[in-house]
Amino acid sequence: MTEIAPSILAADFANLQRDVEMLNASSAGYIHVDIMDGMFVPNISFGLPVCEAIYKHAKKPLDVHLMIEQPDRYLAEFRHAGASVITVHYEACPHLHRTVQHIKELGAMAGVAVNPHTPVEVLSEILGDVDLILIMSVNPGFGGQTFIENTYKKIARLDQMRKEGNHKFVIEVDGGVNTSNAPLLTSSGADVLVAGSFVFRSSNPLQTIDDLKNAGKL
């Protein structure tokens, strides 16, 4: 079953409670929360206070994506702020196994993200320990970017590694997701589709989330 995780980064921040409540009423499985520090990625989004505010109104689990340097400093704080899933970047974690174990000790699902230039093979030693792998299908930092076509091959390769190792992690994809590429993304092996601008800039976000979910079944 394909899950949709709308990215709250694309919401109207002057009406954040309204948009969170819209997602509560939708068929989305998660609310994706992008945290950017202006260092690991060339953009600043928001931090703990906004995450806490989202959690206050959310009825869907928060899927928190830490696009930050030295994420270990803030794992406990984001768990306390409501994160059900905490995803860190392979590229930002020199002691990735320890970071993953810490996330799980905090009671959250542990995710690892890889940038477009990073081959999924570098994750071979961690696949048995994670709950989620996030494949970035754009360069992280900004919404509304063009989807990178090589993503399909990366997802398919990761799905092959999952099957060969009999692993249970889910595959999430983030960046440029829409109803046109959703069928191929899921047929390649993706389980969770993150969509921001495509959902929040549509005339009917609830219907768009349904359309994405149904496209993923094709």
Automatic annotation (TrEMBL):
Record GO terms (molecular function): D-ribulose-phosphate 3-epimerase activity; metal ion binding
Active site: D34 (proton acceptor), D174 (proton donor)
Keyword annotations of the record: Carbohydrate metabolism, Cobalt, Isomerase, Manganese, Metal-binding, Zinc
KW Manganese (keyword) present: yes
Stored Gene3D superfamilies: Aldolase class I
Gene Ontology cellular component annotations, sorted alphabetically: cytoplasm
CDD domains: RPE
Enzyme class: isomerase
Entry's cofactor comment: Binds 1 divalent metal cation per subunit.
Catalytic activity: D-ribulose 5-phosphate = D-xylulose 5-phosphate
A Pfam family per the record: Ribul_P_3_epim
Superkingdom of this protein's organism: Bacteria
PROSITE patterns: RIBUL_P_3_EPIMER_1, RIBUL_P_3_EPIMER_2
EC numbers, comma separated: 5.1.3.1
Protein residues bound to a divalent metal cation: H32, D34, H65, D174
Cofactor: Co(2+); Fe(2+); a divalent metal cation; Mn(2+)
Binding-site residues for substrate, renumbered to this chain: S7, H65, G141, F142, G143, G144, D174, G175, G176, G196, S197
Functional summary from the UniProt entry: Catalyzes the reversible epimerization of D-ribulose 5-phosphate to D-xylulose 5-phosphate.
NCBIfam families in the cross-refs: PRK05581.1-4, rpe
Family: Belongs to the ribulose-phosphate 3-epimerase family.
Name of the protein described by the UniProt record: Ribulose-phosphate 3-epimerase
Organism the protein comes from: Dyadobacter luteus
